Structure formats: C-alpha cells, structure tokens
Amino acid sequence: MRNTIKSLLLGMVLTGVVVLPGVSRASAAADPVMRPACGSYQLSDDHACLMAVRGRQVNGWKVTVNLHAQKRNGHDWVFGAAWVGTGGRVWIERQHGGRTEILGRMTSLGDGAVSMGTGRAVYDGPGYKARACADIKGGRLQACTDWY
C-alpha cells in the first residue's frame, strides 16, 4: 500500500497535476524567475529561442514560457509558447518607441501547452523588442523571457 501511494504521488508530480490547497499568492511570489537555455524546446526554424521558468513542479505550480524568433521574408517574427496548465495564459509584450504593448493573449483550455503559434506571430523588426510572458490560472506565477 505504501509503495502504491508513493507511485501515485510520483506519477502525479511527473505529470504536473498535483495542486496543494492553501498555496497563497505570497508563497508563489517567492519563486524567482529562472532563464535557462531553450535546449530541446528550440524549434528547427528558430534562429533565437529564449526561455523563462517560474515555480516548482513538486508542488504542482510551474510556468515554462518560450519566445521563438524566426525569419520570414528577411524579417524577425516572434511567437510564444508555454506550459501553463488549464486556465494559464501566454502572450507577447512588444516595445517600440518607449511604448509596451501586450499582444495575442491566449488561454490554455487543456492541461498542457498553449501557444500563440506561428499564425499569430508578431513582427519584431528594427527598433522593436519583444518577450514572451505566461502565467497560471488566476494570473499567478507570471514569468517573462528576457527582451529580444
């Protein structure tokens, strides 16, 4: 019985579905945003890929977001993809001329990833900067990549 419980808990942790009651906004805010290399998340068409991760999978609250930069007709286009769980969101923030715009906010309807996708890519040409951001349901654990 003890091994069965351990196996079930380990399985839930690995699939990211453990949600502990009482996790407050304050404790979630204590998790720093880490920005590792994209690694296996980099797509074959990317000439740049940035990543941000916030939270810990062991407690079921984690955000992983990627900014993918690709060339189209000689210009940079970027889009965001994130692993945020049901109700989480991903969007692009674009800076130009001192203004920051929030573009393409998409909400995850399933348990896994949500993506702005290449059909919703955003132009990131001369004078523009962009970053991908994501959060989990309720706006918690927001994470953003570095500006590209």
How would the global form be characterised?
Answer: globular
Give the N-to-C terminal Cα separation: 51 Å
Give the rounded overall mean pLDDT: 77
Low-confidence segments, ≥5 residues, pLDDT <50? 1-28
Q: What does the radius of gyration come to?
A: 17 Å
The total of helices stands at 2
What's the number of domains? Answer: 1
Write down the secondary-structure element order.
HHEEEEEEEEEE
Reported for the largest beta sheet, the result is: 6 strands, antiparallel
Strand residues, percent: over 45%
SS class:
mainly beta
Query: How many DSSP E strands?
Result: 10
Helix content: 10-25%
Brief write-up:
With 148 residues, the chain is mainly β. Helices cover 13% and strands 46% of the residues. The chain has one domain.
